[in-house]
Write a structure and sequence with these properties.
The complex is a heterodimer of chains A (about 900) and B (about 160). By secondary structure, chain A is of the alpha/beta class. Chain A has 32 helices and 34 strands. Chain A starts with a helix and ends with a helix. Classes of the chains: A alpha/beta (about 900), B mainly beta (about 160).
């Protein structure tokens, strides 16, 4: 139905365009009279013809009938078989009016009676045809009882003027009924068309350019102002900043189109192709309303067509084979689109046979795409990705038009060109999922500006995973060589490194060489192309900026490492790095391959002990603190004079909003920090509110054990302490700290829970780390829940199936000995007794693969271990829901029982 | 090279064209003025890694990014230092604006087609595909460049 609606709207818009000028054109035709302007008549003919064609297709029979008859007359006119007299044009104009009204109220158009018009038009036509055969004036005196009197039908050779006089009278009477309809039809639909206007792409492009220029000027202004600090100007700059951003957003909006316009053609593609291949296939489309930029809509059609065809062709098995494997004969292809972190994620998933990595490897080796040795060291996941390797496709010819004969490598290249990525996941026997991520728009991209040698480069934020700083002291421990490639040890895995200085052949600027030495630290930007993850070594980091992409000239078409250029706030040109291009140029090896080559790499780190990443900072020499990384949204470096005190509350004016600040020492014992000219602000969220924690001196980000002493240094705001690098470090509880500073922010929550009537909700908790288990129990119990803590999944499962308890919710860790969270969840969901109990998984680092796995086994939600507020919100949602559901269930059961009782009597 | 035409360049003959002339090293070159957009001192060039060696880099040309080409490298001449006379001569070629890095700007000349002589083959050993021909001043020789050929490899019409 929605498809039809879209088509109807398009039809209405297009028909309105055709009809808009038709009145004047008919009048001009009337004026021309005998001297028929064939071109003009042709133009009208074509307009009516298109309406007729589309109407027939859409089942708008009345519109079709009416336009068909109009078309016939116009056809005769352009063949000079009919001279347009006022009477004839009058008939046609009336018919056109009715046609217009029908189109404006297109859904009711089939209820409009057009017979009067049709009869008139047919009469004109018949008369003209007759006149053409026997051009005698006697014809028109012939009475025609059934049809109204033939309207003026003069033939080119012999115009008969007298008939013209009476014709309008006759036809005027007939359409009286139509005229009535017309008037009530008019009132309703007039508004409908107004919601959409058509804007030429040229105008949009120039608007985009202007917005781009405005962004540049704003950047320049902001830069100047931040340097000179002239008081009143800041307000103006802030206003300009805001207006510019809004203008930019509004203009971008005009270019956004729903992705449904691309998806719309796939049902047909799947239907035709599966019929041809004797397969049975359903297509399920989700997320048609996701809007992306016009340029992307245009460019994504071919790659998607190829992927969908591939799923039907290679993904799904024949019905017999499916049945033999215990599947439904009809396969399903899911085509999904959704927003994900400022990007669009499109999935093409089938429930077919999956891809066998072993067969792929074999094929790749025989084709010479990879060597036998590298095939051996390849993981299954990597092997499946071989389908994207150049030279792997069996297609001989590359075309961009049909999407046929295009190899997967071309699909990948095209998607990469758009700034997107494509990946594949496959399970043998279960199916294959192709995941495409695309930017929402191409023209303006947020980027990080970096310094390499004497030049600055922009790296699209889309590609950036994290920034790593390696100090001189750590250098030898963290860098090493694997198979002649320089690598960085990062959280237990090896990351290939690219020194941009060398790979871009940028002569090291002397001043930077020096400063690099004095800072003694190396900046590494970890980037991801979707295929490979690696680190870029740069000399320095500058600001993040929204940059306007400018194309490079023809002379740079062979520069694989450059995606374009941009103009920075200071007017200089910076080049935009093409991360995929650099990966290709440097022949980046994947991390898995490196790990394999390095043998047992960092197994020492991967003992069974739970670890968490923390940010370490100092407020004074002896006061060292740690904050869990998972809770940190970002870290800002600010000047101390940017911090204002408003009503006794310290705040930071930041990006048009005010960020409340916390100082550790205000609430926790310890010496206050020395005054520094620049400090770091650790930004985190509590109840959708951003809060900044002042961290005067940052030390490091580290993976540390979760063995925390929760007794010695315990106080509100401090969870406990542990020894890191020989220093006692206190682990901060951001939520308690926030609560200590702003107790009123948490009042709402307490109210919600205490309102609950009846027994407190009962939660089953599985968590092997004593530290986290105690934390979660404490959080949940303090909020009024009843908690049953278990040391691992097995214990939890035993408790659950014993039937002793009536749990409302399961909260589980993923990594646990004996039985992990996935297994626990699968057990619970496979058992009809527990299927309804929601499962929340707790994780420290949410990896995408884990998320997928979790969804597969039925985990209802993921929460980060230390994010108290989000966890509580999630629990509240689920508990309310199940409570309501179970009450309903119970009511129903009791009703049924009552009925039974009644029935048995 | 036997008939040397010395044109006074007065009045505009139907086939006459104006050429902007400039020095690259000791060589006096001319380009069709219709292809010249502007001459500026925008010499803050950002070099592009991996670009052909005759490309100096890119500049900010009022919000657009324009390529700057070093004619010396392209013509195989010796290098000279940037001086106060150095200019960027912005020309239109192949649908984009391209800057030519030149050492000094000279006059504008009006030259009729019949005043253009074929390029001598021994002109500093430079590939004469790039030249329309030469035009003789009283003391000097102006080499008229085929910009499109030079920058895109396509012959001018």
């Amino acid at each position: 139905m929605e498809d039809d609606d879209d088509l109807l709207i398009d039809f209405v818009m297009e028909s309105r365009d055709h009809l808009s000028d038709m009145e004047n054109q008919f009048l001009q035709i009337e004026q021309d009279g005998e001297n028929i302007n064939v071109d003009l008549v042709n133009e009208v003919f074509r307009g009516i013809h298109s309406i007729k064609g589309a109407a027939g297709f859409l089942g708008l029979t009345k519109v079709n009938d009416l336009s068909h008859n109009l078309e016939n007359l116009l056809n005769m006119m352009r063949n000079e078989e009919l001279v347009p007299t006022s009477a004839i044009v009058d008939v046609m104009l009336r018919a056109t009016d009715t046609l217009r009204n029908m189109i404006l109220d297109v859904k009711n158009s089939n209820d409009v009676d057009v017979s009067a018009h049709v009869t008139e038009l047919e009469a004109v036509e018949a008369a003209a045809a007759a006149a053409a055969e026997t051009p005698t004036p006697s014809e028109e005196s012939d009475p025609a009882p059934s049809a109204p009197e033939a309207a003026a039908v003069p033939v080119v050779s012999e115009p008969v003027p007298e008939v013209v006089e009476e014709a309008p009278v006759e036809v005027a009477a007939a359409p009286a009924k139509v005229a009535e309809k017309k008037s009530d039809a008019k009132s309703a639909p007039a508004v409908q068309g107004e919601a959409n206007i058509r804007v030429s792409v040229g105008v949009l492009d120039s608007l985009m350019n202007l917005a781009g220029e405005l962004v540049l000027s704003r950047n320049q202004l902001l830069q100047v102002i931040s340097k000179s600090e002239t008081g009143g100007m800041e307000g103006i700059a802030a206003r300009l900043d805001q207006v510019t951003s809004e203008l930019q957003e509004a203009i971008m909006q005009t270019r956004m189109q729903p992705i449904g316009s691309v998806f719309g053609k796939f049902p047909r593609v799947v239907r035709d192709l599966s019929a041809k291949l004797s397969k049975q296939c359903d297509l399920v489309v989700e997320g048609k309303d996701v809007e992306v930029d016009k340029t992307i809509i245009e460019a994504i059609g071919d790659p998607l067509t190829h992927l969908v065809r591939n799923s039907v062709d290679h993904g799904l098995e024949l019905p017999e084979k499916r049945q033999a494997n215990g599947k439904k004969a009809t396969g399903t292809i899911y085509l999904r689109a959704c927003y994900q972190a400022g990007k669009v994620r499109i999935e093409i998933e089938d429930d077919g046979g999956g891809i066998d990595p072993a067969i792929l490897k074999e094929k790749a080796v025989s084709k010479g795409v990879i060597t036998a040795e590298s095939a051996e060291s390849m993981t299954d996941r990597e092997a499946v990705r071989l389908i994207f390797a150049p030279g792997f496709s069996t297609a001989k010819e590359v075309t961009s038009v049909s999407g046929r004969g295009v190899g997967m490598d071309v699909v990948r290249t095209n998607i990469t060109k758009l700034g997107g990525t494509v990946d594949v996941e496959s399970t043998i026997g279960k199916g294959t999922n192709i995941i495409v991520t695309l930017p929402l728009t191409l023209a303006i991209i947020p980027s990080l500006i970096v310094q390499v040698g004497a030049d600055r480069f922009a790296i699209p934020q889309v590609n950036i995973v994290e920034l790593v700083r390696v100090t001189e002291a750590e250098r030898s421990a963290r860098f090493s060589q694997v198979k002649n490639a320089e690598v960085l040890r990062l959280r237990g895995s090896l990351l290939p490194l690219v020194r941009l200085n060398d790979s871009l052949h940028v002569g090291s600027d002397d001043s930077f060489e020096k400063s690099d030495k004095t800072t003694d630290a190396i900046n590494i930007i970890v980037v991801d192309t979707g295929q490979a993850r690696f680190g870029l070594v740069v000399n320095a980091l500058h600001d993040s900026e929204e940059i306007v992409v400018k194309p490079l000239g023809q002379h740079f078409k062979d520069c694989r490492c450059m995606a374009g250029a941009t103009i920075l706030g200071d007017g200089h040109v910076a080049l935009i790095l093409d991360i995929a291009g650099i990966a290709a140029e440097e022949n980046i090896r994947s991390a898995e391959e490196l790990d394999a080559a390095n043998g047992t790499a960092d197994d020492a780190n991967k003992d069974n002990e739970d670890q968490q990443a923390v940010l370490l900072f100092q407020t004074s020499e002896n006061d060292r603190f740690a904050v869990p990384m998972d809770l940190i949204a970002r870290i800002e470096r600010v000047r101390s004079d940017q911090i204002d005190s408003v009503g006794g509350l310290e705040v930071l004016q930041y990006k048009q909003s005010t960020l409340p600040l916390l100082r550790v020492n205000d609430h926790v014992t310890g010496k206050s920090a020395d005054d520094l000219s620049r400090v770091y602000v650790v930004v985190f969220e509590v109840n959708d509110r951003e809060i900044g924690l002042l961290a005067p001196v940052l030390d490091d980000i580290r993976m540390v054990s979760t063995l925390v002493d929760t007794v010695t240094f315990r106080e509100p705001g401090v969870i406990g302490s542990q020894v890191i690098d020989g220093h006692t470090t206190r682990l901060i509880d951001l939520f308690e700290l926030t609560e200590a500073a702003h107790p009123h922010w948490f009042e709402d929550r307490e109210a919600v829970v205490s309102e609950k009537e009846g027994a407190p909700p009962h939660i089953l908790l599985a968590e092997d780390s004593g530290f986290f288990r105690n934390q979660v129990v404490k959080i949940l119990e303090s909020t009024g829940y009843l908690v049953e803590p278990c040391e691992d999944g097995q214990i939890a499962w035993d408790k659950l199936k014993s039937g002793q308890y009536d749990f409302d919710l399961i909260v589980t860790d993923i990594e646990m000995p004996n039985m992990n969270g996935f297994e626990l969840c699968r057990h619970a969901k496979d058992d009809a007794r527990f299927r309804e109990i929601p499962v929340i998984a707790l994780t420290s680092l949410a990896a995408a693969a884990d998320l997928q796995h979790g969804i597969d086994v039925g985990i209802d939600d993921y929460q980060i271990k230390m994010d108290r507020e989000k966890l509580l919100n999630s629990i509240r949602n689920f508990v309310d829901h199940t409570k309501a559901a179970s009450t309903q269930r119970k009511t129903k059961t009791s009703q049924r029982q009552t009925q039974k009782l009644v029935g048995s009597h | 090279m036997t008939t040397l035409l010395k044109s006074p360049a007065i009045g505009s003959e139907p086939s006459a064209k104006q050429y902007a002339t400039f020095y690259v090293g000791d060589l006096l070159l001319g380009v069709d003025i219709h292809q010249v957009q502007e001459i500026n001192r925008q010499l803050d060039v950002t070099s592009v890694p991996g670009a052909p060696d005759f490309v100096r880099g890119v500049i900010n040309l009022r919000g657009d990014v324009a390529t700057v080409v070093d004619l010396r490298t392209l013509l195989g001449l010796a290098e000279t230092e940037k001086t106060r006379d150095t200019r960027n001569l912005i020309v239109h070629s192949g649908g984009e604006a391209i800057g030519l890095w030149v050492d000094r700007i000279s006059d504008i000349l009006e030259v009729s087609d019949h005043e253009i002589n074929p390029t001598p083959t021994n002109l500093d050993g430079i590939d004469n595909r790039f030249f329309i021909g030469v035009y003789l001043l009283e003391t000097e020789l102006v080499v008229l460049l085929d910009i499109d050929q030079l920058l895109t490899g396509k012959p001018a019409d």
